[in-house]
Automatic annotation (TrEMBL):
It comes from the Bacteria. Its EC number is 4.1.99.12. This is 3,4-dihydroxy-2-butanone 4-phosphate synthase. GO terms for cellular component: cytosol. Pfam families: DHBP_synthase. Pathway: Cofactor biosynthesis; riboflavin biosynthesis; 2-hydroxy-3-oxobutyl phosphate from D-ribulose 5-phosphate: step 1/1. Keywords: Metal-binding, Riboflavin biosynthesis.
């Protein structure tokens, strides 16, 4: 875990893998505090999934982010919330990688108030369970927990790793992807058990 934490602190991507009995998939993860337009572009190219900002329930409450209406979904499913933009400093309409990076940095800034974000916007958010990994062993909760361990605001940009075939990479294929791109992998269980 020390190398994983070091990479997070240095603004590098890591991959969080969940359990084989769950999705058995990996998410690219980077600190919301350190995200920039280059990392957003690279995440889109490498990950292939939909980038979303994982945010703790306490920060979501402070910023008055509302959970989207849930229908035909498991009670333990991801808690997707409103899309957002930064209210100040955008260079365009919020869609560019520069603007999305600013929005994510704004979410991660502990001094940000509810008046500094607008909704709807161009950045998707998902709120972690209030009891974290003790209640839900998801990529959302694991990435939020890892940010806390690394000393950052509990905000992370995450994106599922999708292969060229259009489906999530798993097992050996995911390991080869990580080796090729020199991205370290950890598991949700490792994060939960870290002291």
């Amino acid at each position: 875990m020390r190398e994983i934490i070091s990479d997070v602190i240095n603004g590098k991507f890591i991959i969080i893998l969940d359990d084989e009995s769950r999705e058995n998939e990996g998410d690219l993860v980077i600190s919301g505090s350190l995200v920039n337009h280059e990392s957003i572009s690279l995440m889109s190219k490498l990950g292939g999934g939909v980038p979303v900002v994982a945010i703790s329930q306490s920060i979501a409450t402070k910023l008055d982010l509302k959970i989207l209406e849930r229908r035909n979904i498991s009670e333990n499913g991801a808690m997707y919330a409103q899309t957002v933009d930064a209210r100040y400093g955008l260079t365009g309409n919020g869609c560019s990688t520069h603007d999305r990076a600013l929005t994510i940095q704004t979410l991660a800034n502990p001094l940000t108030t509810v008046d500094e974000i607008t909704t709807p916007g161009h950045v998707m958010t998902v709120i972690g369970h209030k009891d974290g990994l003790n209640a839900r062993l998801g990529h959302t909760e694991a990435s939020i927990s890892l940010m806390k361990i690394a000393g950052f605001s509990e905000v992370a940009l995450i994106c599922e790793v999708i292969g060229d075939h259009g489906n999530p990479l798993k097992g050996i294929s995911l390991m080869k992807f990580a080796d090729y791109h020199e991205i370290k992998i950890t598991t949700i269980d490792n994060i939960k058990s870290y002291k």
